[in-house]
Amino acid sequence: MKYRKLTIENFGPYYGAHVLPFGRERGVWLVYGDNGRGKTTLLNAFRYALYGKILGRRAERRPEELANTRHASEMGRSEFKTILEFEHDGVEYRVTRHFLAGRNPDHRMVVEQNGTPLSDSEAAKVMLAVAPESISQFFLFDGELLRQYEDLRDPNIDSGRRMRDEVDRLLGVHAVENAIQDLKEIRAGINRDTARVLAANARARNLAVAMQEANDKRGALVVALSELKSKYRTHSARLAEVEEALAQDQRARDTLARIDVLKQKRTGLEVKLQSALEELQEMSPSAWKAAILPALGSRLHEIKEQTQVMDERRIAAMVARRTEQQLQAGIDCPVCETPLDNTRREEVLRRVRAAGTVADVERLDRVVSFLRKQAETLEQLNDTGAAHILAEREKAVRRLGLEISDVDDSISEQEEDLRGIDESEVRRRGRERDDLTMLLSGLEQNIAQSEIDIQQQDNAITRIKDELLRLNVTTDPVLESKDRISGELLALFSAALARYQDELLTRVEDEASQVFMSVRAEDEYRRLKIREGYGLSIVDEAGSEVLGHSAGYEHLIALSLIAALQRCSPVQGPIVMDSPFGRLDETHTRNVVAALPRIAEQVVLLAFNTEFDRDSAVEALGDSLVAEFSLERVSARHTKIVTGRL
Amino acid sequence: MRGERLFQTVEEIRRSRFTDLDPELVAEILSSQIQMQEDRAEAQRRTERAIATWASTDAIASGKKS
Questions:
Q1: Which own/partner contact pairs does A259-263 have at CB distance under 8 Å and 24+ positions apart?
Q2: DSSP string of A477-545?
Q3: pLDDT at A289 (0 to 100)
Q4: Taking the CA atoms of chain B, what radius of gyration do you get in angstroms?
Q5: Are strands A2-11 and A14-21 parallel, antiparallel or unpaired?
Q6: How far is residue A164's CA from residue A154's CA, in Å, rounded to a whole number?
Q7: What pLDDT, on a 0 to 100 scale, did the predictor assign at position A376?
Q8: A108: helix, coil or strand?
Q9: Closest Cα to residue A156, out of A504, A535, A511, A488?
Q10: What is chain A's mean pLDDT, rounded?
Q11: B14 touching A, CB under 8 A?
Q12: Which of A111, A133, A8, A131 is nearest to A60 (CA)?
């Protein structure tokens, strides 16, 4: 396929009619546009023109959303039109699609072949043949979705499996598989006809009946297999939808996972708290000690000080009492042994008595004794280890309580993030995905078993045919010829499929490596290595697989694979790329621009004004650059396509 | 030529092992299957029609048709 011209009318921001001409059959067309000017809408204009569909980044969009609002308010109706003119296998086509919004939206498609309009059924058939939608992602792609190619490296995830299936379709593997399947069915029809003819032959009647029976069994198995495959396709499509929705809910799922982890942590803390509370409970008879422990120390200190003071006063009183007794006995001064006259003796006695009487000594004895007992009791309490353990346990309970409170706060924060998201719906989708995965696994087993059963019937039919050959019974020459030709075709395509698939991985690897080497800036990276299922990885100069390379290199690998698939596919066509340089630096962007002419014969690149250096791009593309266009803002609801770069 | 490897693979095997099969018939069926991947019924119809046409010609050529 080669594009000739795209015309769009009132499509998205493109108010009125705009034309993107393709003056040559080979080369690169650059379309520059700032954010919001309509690059992705232009990609969708190609998609709508070819398939009648419009895609957002996450799902299909309703056409009503793409009707130009200025035109709608002026005309009182929401509508748009696309006209794509192209050549395919030497035939000129013009596909006009018109959409008119309303209670019953009106989609119209007119396909002209070499200037002659086709009937609706012919038009539909032609579009299926010239633009197979199942492989559209390899021709119309959004650079921001290139990450999905990384899924090819994981053999277990369904999105990777679906992509491998689409790659097989692009590379023609499915075409050969379909040919084999069709030939088997055609041969079943030939066998039925053969059995009918042989039924009239007395020598072969028994074999004809056996053949008919085997055919009937095979037919029933084929119907059952077809139902299984239909179910598989339905569930597989549903799984794709659910996974797409789940991908959108990724943030919500991450948050839910964090909430689950926090809730588990909370449960663990609650168990610990319960255990700590039980340990605390065991010590409750001693709990009062812990309660008074802080006051106990200071009280003990006070009592000891009081005891010391009282004891000093008691000793002083006792000394005074003994001195009084000595003075009364007529002894001279007991300290300095100076003789005392009566006057002075009376004076000393008065002072000694003031320092402490017998009553004072007895009272102070009692006080000191009481205080010492108190101190002794308090010291016993203060020395109790259980009180310390109790305090520690109380501390543990408080700490666990605080931790639970922190976790509760975190859960509240995460739940705040989930506001507006239906948590139960996200969880339901997760369960649905698991159910579907299991269902599909069961269906795969049933399909495999059905295929074995059908093969057994085919073998039985072959044995009957061999028997008929030995009997030398002839049927109808045309029928025999059909049988021989279809049998040889079946064997031919089966052998070709095996060899083609064997060679395919090596060829894709070689082609992708060539492109990769032309765009990579890291000298140590020497080639790409392919795995079963088209997953690619980088190999360095030492021959080792490079693990954990940058997101930019993932991007380059994806672009190299797309280029390789284009080069290996029997289905050829122009490529329209929207913003493919997202994760690339300046050097790699320039390298990729230079490699564009090698990816496909016609490449339309939709890019930001600042996405790459225009001068070096023009130099790198050389003669391959056919034209440059810019998306010019007139108003929020009006973008113009103008020739050249603004 | 780009994307021709599938046709080449089929033709190489035909030439070495299935010389009775006409290369045009083989290419016609393969082209139909590639073009009509999205319309399985049409692909099978075209394949069946091609075989029927070649079988009639083959039968006449072999002088088997009465």
A1: A259/A411, A259/A414, A259/A415, A259/A418, A262/A407, A262/A410, A262/A411, A262/A414, A263/A411
A2: HHHHHHHHHHHHHHHHHHHHHHHHHHHHHHHHHHHHHHHHHHH---TTEEEEEE-TTS-EEEEETTSPB
A3: 66
A4: 14
A5: antiparallel
A6: 11
A7: 85
A8: strand
A9: A535
A10: 86
A11: yes
A12: A133
Task: Give DSSP secondary structure letters for A287-340.
Answer: HHHHHHHHHHHHHHHHHHHHHHHHHHHHHHHHHHHHHHHHHHTT---TTT----
A404-422 burial code (b ≥16 CB/10 A, e <16): beebeeebeebeeeeeeee
> Mutate which of B51, B62, B64 to disrupt the A interface (most A C-beta within 10 Å)?
B51
Per-residue model confidence (pLDDT) at position B1: 40
Is there a contact between A163 and A152 (Cβ–Cβ < 8 Å)?
yes
- Interface probe, candidates A53, A481, A507, A568, chain B, greatest B C-beta count within 10 A: A481
Choice between A203 and A541, residue whose per-residue pLDDT is larger:
A541
Chain A, 454 to 513: residues with Cβ < 8 Å from chain B are 477-482, 484-486, 488-489, 491-493, 495-496, 499-500, 503, 507
Most confident region among A238-242, A490-494, A530-534, A610-614 by mean pLDDT: A490-494
Are A640 and A8 in contact by the 8 Å Cβ rule? The answer is no
Mean pLDDT across A270-287: 81
Q: Is A52 strand, coil or helix?
A: coil
Q: Specify the pLDDT at position A402.
A: 87
A447 pLDDT band (50/70/90 cuts)?
very high
Please name which of A496, A184, A126, A178 lies closest in space to residue B37, comparing C-alpha atoms.
A178
What is the rounded distance in angstroms from the CA atom of residue A124 to the CA atom of residue A93?
13
Pairing of strands A2-11, A79-88: antiparallel
Mark yes or no for CB contact B40/A567 under 8 Å: no
pLDDT tops 80 at residue A512: yes
Q: Which two tokens stand for residue A570?
A: 């029997």
3 state DSSP class of A372:
helix
pLDDT score for B66: 46
pLDDT class of A251 with cuts at 50, 70, 90: low
Compute the nearest-CA separation of A579 from chain B (Å). Answer: 26
Question: ∠ CA A491-A496-A498 to the nearest 5 degrees?
Answer: 100
> If you search the block for the tokens 């790329």, which residue do you land on?
A577
pLDDT at A155: 66
Of A47-51, A360-364, B52-56, the one with minimum mean pLDDT is A360-364
Taking Cα atoms as reference points, which of A517, A623, A496 lies closest to residue A570? A496
C-beta neighbour count of A103 within 10 angstroms: 4
> Per the structure block, which two tokens stand in for A111?
């396909």
Are residues B33 and A176, on separate chains, in Cβ contact within 8 Å? yes
What is the distance of C-alpha B12 from the center of its chain?
A: 14
Closest Cα to residue A235, out of A438, A487, A476, A507? A438
User: Residue A442 corresponds to which tokens in the numbers above?
Assistant: 């069961």
Identify the sign of the CA torsion A261, A263, A265, A267: negative
Question: Pairing between strand A91-100 and A106-113?
Answer: antiparallel
Q: Which among A21, A1, A34, A142 has a CA at the least distance from the CA of A605?
A: A142
CA distance A223 to A177: 18
Scan for tokens 């396909």, then name that residue. Answer: A111
- Are A58 and A241 in contact by the 8 Å Cβ rule? The answer is no
Helix residue spans in A418-473 (DSSP H): 423-471
Shortest Cα–Cα distance, A492 to chain B (Å): 6
**A232 with A444: CB under 8 angstroms?**
yes
Residue range A89-115: average pLDDT? 92
Angle at Cα A561 formed by Cα A557 and Cα A562, nearest 5°?
Answer: 120
